Known about the structure:
Blueprint: H1 2-18, E1 27-28, E2 35-39, E3 45-50, H2 63-76, H3 84-87, H4 91-104, E4 108-112, H5 115-126, E5 132-136, H6 141-148, E6 153-157, H7 162-171, E7 178-183, H8 195-204, E8 208-212, H9 227-230, E9 239-243, E10 254-258, H10 260-269, H11 271-274, H12 281-295, H13 298-318, E11 329-335, H14 337-349, E12 352-353, E13 356-357, E14 367-372, H15 379-395
Parallel strand pairs: 3-12, 5-6, 5-7, 7-8, 8-9
Antiparallel strand pairs: 1-2, 2-3, 4-10, 9-10, 11-14, 13-14
Helix pairs in contact: 2-12, 4-12, 5-6, 5-10, 7-8, 13-15
Amino acid sequence: MYDRLKADLQQRLTELEEQGLYKIERVLQGAQGPEITAKLPDGKTIRALNFCANNYLGLANQPELIQAACKAMNEWGYGLSSVRFICGTQEQHRLLEEELSAFLGTEDTILLSSCFDANGGVFEALLDADSAILTDALNHASIIDGVRLCKARRLIYKHLDMADLEQKLQEASDAKYRLIATDGVFSMDGDIADLKTICDLAEKYDALVLVDDSHATGFIGPNGRGTPEHWDVQDRVDLITTTFGKALGGASGGCVSGRKELIQWLRQKARPYLFSNTLAPAIVGATREALRIASNAQDLRNQLARNTMRFRKAMEAAGFTIRHGHHPIVPIMLGDEKLAVQMAQALLDEGIYVIAFSYPVVPKGLARIRVQLSAAHTDEMVDRCVAAFTKVGKALGALKS
């Protein structure tokens, strides 16, 4: 049987390469940061400016986080060898949950190994076949997979289309419970969900609201508390799922935060929580420090905003088509899959590390290079990135000469 499967996979892999859709992993030779050293598939090593990480506040290699991780590991050990309810809950796990609740403005929080696991466990635990989930068409894969694990009826509304959401809520009027699930910020486009209208509709049609705020926690909103704070609806959102793997240090771990009874029930029934090892002590210690920094990081948020606007304005002036907005996710829309891949490779040759995104990660015909800004980028780094894009864009015909 394996020989047949092997031949099939080899053919499909070859087709991906021919279509320019084969994903190549470049191996970093050091820490994450605004400038990195990467080993290429041909064995060459290149030094490049990094414009494709989720390192929004620039904390991924901060000495304070490294020291906090080492301190936590020295005090609490390397791992727990257990799940939370057996013998895997330490005092610092409870402290991090309390600190996250205070930061996000919620009643309680439950830690998981990732936000993917958070979204993978929340729907099945809370909703049954008599319920309905209303989910944005461009929600993250983890929400899609989490919803698939649940027996509740699924109604997909058009991306950011509040009229369509209202229609779907009307269609779900017979459901015992209704839950609207949305990304706070959509990772491929940088779009910010209209949480105010979503909450208005949820109240009108008696629904719960869940927001995956992975691309917002720590830097969106006046105090970095995410899209609920950005829209001033913190007390109207029932559940927030988010990650510690982006602005909060860039490592791993995630959580579900929200109404007390919902979180209590997840502790009893969420399968990724009940059957996965406890979050490692070093991650907990560093995340607590990252949360402390993010709580007082207005200077970093201001720098991130300045970098974002500098890049957006310069790229538009150069003639590139980008998705409008003010989020540090900046999609450079190219349309053609092969062009996107060629451009990303050519930019790497110019010392700019970015990645092309194409189908099935994004819809066909919407291939792009997704640039992500960081507070750690300097003006000179941003300007070098724009110059390289302009040079390569002209050479490949993506820009008029």
